[in-house]
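User: structure tokens for this one?
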Amino acid sequence: MAAVAAAGAGAAGAAGAVAAPHRGIRTWLRSAFRFATDRNDFRRWLFRNSGWLLRNSEWLLRNLNS
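Assistant:
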């Protein structure tokens, strides 16, 4: 009986966890501002893009020197 109740609670919790996506320019601006002001996200983004830049510049220099 407890297992059935736990399964029911898990299913209800999983269904309630999915939120409808918000659309619109205000939502986009709010998320862009939040991203720009959140240091952890910005540092993660900067780290990923600097790695991409280094890999591609290495490839470009190797192929230009051939």
